[in-house]
Amino acid sequence: MFRKLSPSFRRYLPEDRCLIHKPEGAIFLWLWFKDLPITTEQLYQRLKARGVLMVPGHNFFPGLDKPWPHTHQCMRMNYVPEPEKIEAGVKILAEEIERAWAESH
After folding, report:
1. Potential cystine with 89: which of 21, 52, 58, 98 (Cβ 3.0-4.6 Å)?
2. Using one digit for the tens of pLDDT, what is the confidence trace for 70-99?
3. CATH architecture of the domain formed by 2-104
4. Where are the domains of the chain?
């Protein structure tokens, strides 16, 4: 399924903005926004305001002994909805990532 989505995904989010952990047969992707100037919790709030729901990564790393920046750089994205909905959501995601970068300069 992801192979079908990959070209449209990369149209909006090149690898310098978003890395994708290799899917292992699940119904979601782990997206890594390395060096994103906002946390994925902040990104989540921006996306939610625009009708796109993804889960910030820190929710999946409870009880760590030490802070780990990676927990605030990743999000989990479900890719079961129709490809058109996913593409629309990825486009909004890309817009919000670019907005975060623009605001940081």
Report:
1. 52
2. 888 999 998 877 888 888 999 999 999 999
3. Alpha-Beta Complex (3.90)
4. 2-104
